[in-house]
Amino acid sequence: MASTWFDAHRRWVGIVPGVLLAVLLAWLPSAESATTAPTVGTAKNAIGTLLVIHSDGIEERLRGQGALAVYEGDVLSTGADSRALIELRDGTQVGFDRATRARLLSRWEKDKGDTRILRLEIGTLWIKTGSNARPLEVETPVASAAPIIEAGGKIEFMIATLDDGNSMLSVIDGVVPFGTAFGTCPIKPSTVSYAVQGKKCTKPEALDTKRPTAWTAKLGAGGAAPLPLPTFWPPPDTSTHQVIPRELLVDGSTRPATLAALAAKMEKALARAGYSSPGYYAVPGGFAMLTQLERIRPDATPFPPDQRWKIKVDPASLSSFNLSAYLKALLGKDAGEFRVIAFVFTAVPIVSDNVTPVMDEAKNWVEQGGKSLPGSYAAQPFSADMVCTALIYEFEIPTHGAPGHQRKPSEHNGQEHLRAARILQALGG
Fold first, then answer.
1. CA 123 → CA 170, 197, 224, 281, 383, distances in Å?
2. Domain for residue 26, yes or no?
3. N or C of the chain: less Cβ packing under 10 Å?
4. Is 51 inside a domain boundary?
5. Same structural domain, 63 and 185
6. Residue 43 and residue 56: Cα distance in Å, rounded?
7. Whether residues 172 and 263 fall in one domain
8. 151 lies in which domain range?
């Protein structure tokens, strides 16, 4: 009996170390991946939420300012309403624009040592190297950008992976080689180049890329820095609206348009339709341009130029004089119908804030906006999910001396307003 117990005990003592070792070995890989993977840098600020998925599957989130460590193999992403800033160990700053996802990797070469790799899957990255920057490369599905980093020099650029899989590189400072399987192009400051599947990168074109960009400046200041444009978001209730067909805004080229190109095209179309300089506003992921308050007829066509922009009309200025029109104007100088049009470029669904616009405020919208589109917006692409929507605000002053009020709904739909204003025709529609 004693011998049987001794044999069983001996077998159990021999099994326990093996069981413990197996448990320990099973636990060690996950523990190691979570704690000993190389640290790449620190996520320092997020407007909205930055999602970090570690290589072991653990997820962490940064909201606002903080110091969230990021590791080799991590995948970082922002949503449609979020932006984030990380700083690599060598001091290089990397800004994640809205709807951006990238993986942090590295490559070791005998002659160069480690090269930090940012594998951009979708969205836009802004990168600014420090004086002690190490080799860096940004990979996209069709191209790669490897800035030429010289001692003490700084590089600043933006690179985007577009919805169609192609890529765009705009350089603000320094020289950034932009390579595909068909060759490499050195992209110099204040120029932009595109990479398309199966082709060499395009010849660099001049581009106004003033720095810093609005959204990266705001991230770097912890969300306190003012935007270069006032915001027009969420927009007030509209009288009606109309989506502008995309084919009227782009030239049909395989190369995606930039926001700067869109603004220039819209300004030319508005000028042909008789409007002067619009007012620029910021909206999520894009911009809005607003026309000045104009007097319109019941059929939504604008008044002649000498009366179109006046709220108070002198009866003597009536171009086609007749007694009935003169008396009507004399008794109700400022009575009539008026309109403001806001062209909003964004991929974010437009939802009104349920606030009724006030005519006395609307007449100042154009002057309160920016006089031009800031260079910080210029390089951003007109992505496939971005839409231009014309928001029409129609007002009426029923009688002389009465306050103006919004007409909602309008008696004309959005397309009728845009045709009456000759804006669609000026765009080629």
1. 14, 17, 24, 22, 10
2. no
3. N
4. yes
5. yes
6. 18
7. no
8. 39-220
**Strands of 276-409, DSSP E:** 279-283, 286-290, 294-296, 336-346, 387-397, 405-406
Whether residue 178 sits in one domain with residue 303: no
Residue among 349, 352, 333 at smallest CA distance from 392 = 352
Number of helices followed by number of strands (H, E) in the chain: 10, 22
Rounded to whole angstroms, the Cα distance separating 338 from 17 reads 87
149's CB contacts (< 8 A; 6+ apart) are 129, 133, 134, 135, 136, 155, 174
Residue with tokens 């109309």: 242
Q: What is the pLDDT along the chain (429 residues), one digit of tens a residue?
A: 444 444 444 443 444 444 444 444 444 443 344 445 778 888 988 888 899 999 999 999 988 777 788 999 999 999 988 899 998 988 899 999 999 999 999 998 877 778 999 999 999 999 998 767 888 999 999 999 999 877 556 899 999 998 778 899 999 889 999 999 888 999 999 899 999 888 888 999 887 665 446 677 777 744 444 457 888 888 999 999 999 999 999 876 656 688 999 999 999 999 999 999 999 998 888 899 999 999 999 999 999 999 999 876 544 444 444 544 544 444 445 689 999 999 999 988 898 767 889 898 899 999 989 999 887 777 788 888 899 999 999 999 987 777 889 999 999 999 999 999 999 999 998
The total domain count for the chain is 2
